[in-house]
Amino acid sequence: MIPLLALTIALIVSAGVYLALSRDLFRCIVGLAALGSAANLIVFATGRFGPIQPAIIPADAMKLAATAASPLPQALVLTAIVISFALLCFALVLGARLRQQGASDDSDQWQAAEPPATDPVKPAVLE
Amino acid sequence: MLLLSPLLVPLATALLTALLYRQSVAMRRAVSLIGALLLVLCAGALLVTVEHAGRITLALGGWPLPYAIEFAADRLSAALVLITAVLGAAVLLHQTSRADPAPETPTLYPLLHGLLAAVGAAFVTADLFNLYVWFELMLIATLGLLVHGGEPRQLQAAFTYLALNLVGTLLFLIAVALLYGATGHLNFSALRQAALRPELAAALPVYVTLLALALLLKAGAFPLFFWLPASYHTLPTPVLALIGGLLTKVGVYALLRLLGDVFAAAPAVLYEALGGMALLTLVTGGLGAVYHWDLRRILAFHIISQIGYLLLGIALASPAGAAATLFFTLHNIVAKASLLLIAGLIWALAGHHDLRRVGGLYSARPGLALLFLVAALALVGLPPLSGFWGKYLLVREIFSQERWLWGGMALAVGLLTLYSMLKIGLEAFWKPHPVGKVIAPVAGLWPAYGAVLLLTALILLMGLLPEPFIRYVDAAAASLGRAGVAP
């Protein structure tokens, strides 16, 4: 189980890095989302594998059974998932808005924030 | 309750200004300014409490430590919270002037106060995952402020900022997860104990390096700073001063807290590598500033260059180095924000941010020239201004460790800083206006002057009466973890 998960995380990270390095706007967003999922899997894996009993205290007991899964990584990963999902939504809306404004989906073509210099020695005058 | 005020006061102000979205701009402004003043008072009270009672802590969540979420303030945290509050008040005052303010939409004040809440909470948290959450909140608030104007240049800059900073937060999250997996703890005190376990001696430095890498990206160190000069110049002046003054310093604070306090027993090679990165940061930031002609971009590259000094102080791995970093951080937040706010005034009076399009300000506004001179020479580090003492503390400790290259570079980069400050002085103030524009009086600038005067007064106070400040930072550094860990 552990080698399988490690391999999965390695695959997701490499796919994520490959896509995130793309100049294409949408591929870049998908790549960042994949990297986020890989990070979440790593957080999840810190709870160790083996115990499959959910981290819920039974009604007649005062503490977790020794065979239960560790609840803290689950709480952490839930927080991390919510945050990365929010940022993914923001990135998608930002991408859509950029396309709406007529920006190319090739980020190399973007020149509004940093216009290329026309003078051989001095930078361009910014807005 | 006082301990949580750096989080709760701005958060309440953010909520209140969000609820007042139907009310007039003047109403939201008033609430936001009152919130900022309240934050200054609370931060001052926190500083006094910490000065008398030492480190104060609060455990939330109903669990015993180290499983509760702990908030703690020592001298290091309290000083940074206070300077954040003062800067927040100055910036919100500047926003009410007509010197390049952000458009007053209903989302502006909630975002600004949300940013202050995240920064304040990052300074007082004592839990690693909690710190990650505050970094994410800072990222979200900053993104909101970047896209706030909605122009194509701002959206494009926001995407660059998002893509590069997201990688940083993901690295941070992975490092937090690995540290938790190895030690079973997230609390700073528990991590400090766990770091001494001999069975972790091989793995822990790797995780700490990953954590440091993520924070170096947030701090804007070479070669991870490219998100900063690509995006900061699209922000309106007050927002730029707040973000440029504070955000990278939160990264530096986190590095100081983790490498200088919690994991102070990390191997020496880590600090050597940090020193190398700091030197490259110093030089690349300085050279970038020399090349540029737009005020905002020159100052953005200076933020990077000054981060190099702060990182050098951490890399020295000694209490005196930590004290120098804290003093330099306090000075740098004030001096940098003052220069950025003056850039807004130059825009309002002379009509542009580019040095090739402005001029003639010395004859028209000698007072503004004087304010610029104080902030610029403080940044260069000339006595009797605050920057001199920061640099003196730092370079003295560098030379006492006999690191001649570090010290030589730190002093030489001062010349690069001086060169680009001279360039601003000569081009914006000394030379006549290039198209002969008469600098006409602009109404509604007094809040901007007030904000700059407040920051200038702080620079002069730290420069002319440095002793209480130096005593304070020495005491702050003495309480950090290194003092407890034998060398």
Structural class of chain A: mainly alpha
Global Rg of chain A: 22 Å
Order of helices and strands of chain A: HHH
The main sheet of chain A comes to: none
Large-scale geometry of chain A: elongated
- Please count the helical segments of chain A: 3
**What ranges of chain A have pLDDT less than 50 throughout 5 or more consecutive residues?**
none
Sheet with most strands of chain B: 2 strands, antiparallel
What would you call the quaternary organization? Answer: heterodimer
Helix-and-strand structural type of chain B: mainly alpha
Question: For the CA atoms, what is the radius of gyration of chain B?
Answer: 21 Å
Report the count of strand segments of chain B: 2
Low-pLDDT stretches of chain B are none
Helix content of chain B: over 70%
Determine the N-to-C terminus distance of chain B.
37 Å
Proportion in helices of chain A: 55-70%
Q: Count helical runs of chain B.
A: 20
Mean pLDDT of chain A: 89
Description:
The complex is a heterodimer of chains A (127) and B (487). With 127 residues, chain A is mainly α. In chain A, 55% of the residues lie in helices and 0% in strands. Chain A starts with a helix and ends in a 27-residue tail after the last helix. The mean pLDDT of chain A is 89. By secondary structure, chain B is an all-alpha fold. Helix content of chain B is 74%, strand content 2%. At the A-B interface, helix 2 and helix 3 of A face helix 5 and helix 6 of B.
Brief descriptors of the model:
heterodimer, A: 3 helices, 0% strand, B: 487 residues, mainly alpha, two-stranded antiparallel sheet, 74% helix, 2% strand
Structure in a nutshell:
The complex is a heterodimer of chains A (127) and B (487). With 127 residues, chain A is mainly alpha-helical. Chain A is built from 3 helices and no strands.
Write the SSE topology:
The complex is a heterodimer of chains A (127) and B (487).
Chain A: H1 2-20, H2 25-45, H3 71-100
Chain B: H1 5-19, H2 25-53, E1 56-60, E2 69-73, H3 75-95, H4 108-124, H5 128-146, H6 152-183, H7 188-194, H8 204-219, H9 227-231, H10 237-262, H11 268-291, H12 295-315, H13 319-350, H14 361-364, H15 366-380, H16 386-400, H17 404-430, H18 446-464, H19 466-478, H20 481-484
Antiparallel strand pairs in B: 1-2
